[in-house]
Write a sequence for this structure.
């Protein structure tokens, strides 16, 4: 059941086509403002288009549980309007539309524990720090359990320990069926080892395996010498 | 705290019909021939019920508008929806269709909601503050159109419009109360049916969408229900401002719970607030009752400014 985008163009993106097979993962790289988030919103149907399909279904055409099951998007920042929605209440909205209070198969407590945020469960979402709210978003992604989950810069606000925790989760093949990870963290991308999609000026510049992407010559060509490969790490020259 | 407030509210509602320009000795209320009996059952009791139902509708309408438009200052009044209803009621009066004024008021309210949505969909990115400004512009436009209505109306019509725009809870008998009770039931039923969607909207449009909700459709249905209810309420009582702004805000501060859990309390205390305001308006000792809209605006306008300052400073 592949995720397919076929010749998508907008004022930011230019002729984007690629396929992501079920149970495969993808990392999307590219400089600021190149259209990564725009692409994510197109893929999950928030920006409607006719170019996207998952198993021949266009996510912007359907509603309810059916679409929620297909694809999910985790934004870089938690956006909650009401100041009195607690972490637990937020997670209780995991997805079964209309069945308020439905029990999740895995259980909210288990997911909270997995992300080491059990102590936050009664806190209001608005009162969380940016790192904590990022972990809450990851928790909601795990509960939602869509076939494709797009993480938009999931590591942006995390301290080193939380970063390690998230890395383990993203690396674990069984966490979610298919993960799409948008990131600026090249070391994370390298260590995860998933296929890479590199965007430049709104177009796909590279789409291939991690080992093809992370050669020094290739990195030099893309990042103008600002990125070095050292033993088992990718480092930014400062 | 909550229980004490509830107790006071219940006592307030229970005693409200007994206060007014003439004293009603309880002993006379059981005599169906007496003047006191008539005043109590034909005027006082319907008036308290009217105040309660209209207050409830306006408060709940405020809550829904705040949720859908994602701004604590969005209410059917600040966004011009009530002004639309007022203008169209005035048009109904001028055209000689006073009896159809609830329908006209609904059309005015709905038209305004459609204009607001039309404008919002043209924004590149949804911006609640700009929409609030659009609502204010619309209110001014409607106010100007209302003045035109005064000019083209006869003396009697213009007096009728004048009384109407000041907001009034004068009512005789229970016919309109039944209509309002049905309208309230309709509004509450729609909100409870979309309870889960409402909760998702309290997070973000994006999150609601990803959980499978048709956000646009849900918003339209909720706003439609509020427009019907506010339209009907305004057509009976005229515009009574600020209830929808004050009540949801105060209740959130007291209850410290998300809005989806406060639907019944907000309806109830919206009603209590208007019953209370009316009680003051009727008992200030002036030769005639002060229009209720004047009183709620006196309370509400400073509160609105307080909200603005608080929002800007935090």
């Amino acid at each position: 059941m592949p995720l397919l985008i076929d010749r998508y163009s907008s004022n930011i993106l230019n002729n984007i086509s690629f396929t992501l097979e079920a149970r495969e993962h993808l990392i999307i790289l590219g400089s600021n403002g190149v259209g990564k988030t725009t692409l994510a919103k197109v893929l999950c149907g928030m920006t409607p288009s006719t170019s996207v399909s998952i198993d021949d279904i266009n996510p912007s055409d359907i509603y309810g549980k059916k679409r929620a099951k297909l694809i999910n998007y985790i934004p870089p920042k938690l956006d909650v309007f009401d100041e009195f929605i607690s972490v637990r209440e937020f997670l209780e909205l995991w997805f079964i539309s209309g069945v308020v209070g439905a029990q999740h198969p895995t259980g909210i407590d288990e997911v909270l524990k997995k992300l080491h945020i059990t102590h936050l469960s009664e806190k209001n979402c608005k009162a969380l720090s940016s790192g904590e709210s990022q972990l809450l978003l990851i928790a909601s992604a795990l509960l939602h359990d869509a076939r494709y989950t797009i993480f938009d810069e999931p590591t942006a606000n995390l301290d080193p320990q939380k970063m390690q925790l998230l890395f383990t989760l993203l690396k674990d093949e069984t966490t979610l069926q298919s993960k799409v990870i948008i990131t600026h963290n090249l070391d994370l991308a390298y260590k995860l080892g998933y296929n890479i999609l590199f965007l430049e000026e709104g177009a796909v510049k590279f789409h291939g395996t991690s080992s093809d992407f992370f050669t020094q010559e290739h990195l030099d060509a893309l990042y103008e010498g600002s990125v070095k490969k050292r033993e088992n790490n990718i480092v930014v020259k400062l | 705290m909550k229980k004490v407030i509830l107790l006071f509210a219940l006592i307030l509602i229970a005693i409200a019909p007994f206060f007014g320009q003439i004293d009603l000795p309880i002993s006379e209320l059981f005599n169906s021939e007496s003047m006191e009996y008539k005043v109590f059952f034909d005027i006082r009791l319907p008036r308290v019920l009217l105040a309660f139902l209209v207050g409830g509708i306006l408060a709940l309408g405020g809550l829904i508008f705040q949720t859908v438009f994602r701004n604590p200052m969005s209410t059917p009044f600040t966004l011009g929806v009530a002004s639309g209803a007022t203008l169209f009621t005035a048009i109904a009066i001028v055209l000689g269709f006073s009896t159809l004024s609830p329908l006209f008021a609904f059309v005015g309210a709905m038209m305004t909601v459609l204009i607001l949505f039309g404008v919002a969909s043209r924004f590149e990115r949804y911006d609640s503050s700009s929409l609030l400004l659009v609502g204010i512009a619309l209110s001014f436009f409607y106010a100007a159109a209302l003045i035109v209505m005064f000019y083209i109306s006869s003396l009697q019509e213009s007096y009728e419009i004048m009384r109407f725009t000041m907001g009034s809870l004068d009512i005789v008998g229970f016919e309109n109360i039944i209509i309002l009770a049905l309208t309230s039931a309709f509004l509450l039923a729609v909100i409870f049916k979309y309870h889960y969607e409402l909760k998702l909207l309290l997070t973000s449009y994006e999150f609601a969408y990803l959980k499978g909700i048709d956000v646009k459709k849900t918003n339209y249905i909720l706003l439609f229900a509020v427009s019907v209810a506010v339209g009907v309420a305004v057509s009976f009582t005229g515009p009574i401002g600020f209830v929808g702004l004050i009540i949801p805000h105060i209740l959130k501060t007291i209850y410290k719970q998300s809005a989806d859990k406060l639907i019944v309390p907000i309806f109830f205390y919206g009603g209590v607030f208007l019953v209370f305001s009316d009680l003051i308006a009727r008992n200030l000792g002036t030769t005639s009752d002060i229009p209720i809209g004047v009183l709620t605006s006196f309370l509400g306008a400073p509160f609105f400014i307080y909200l603005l300052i608080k929002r800007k400073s935090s």
Notes: Chain A has one domain: 3-236. Chain A touches chain B at residues 44-46, 63-68, 72-73, 75, 79-85, 89-90, 93, 95, 97-100, 125, 144 (CB under 8 Å).
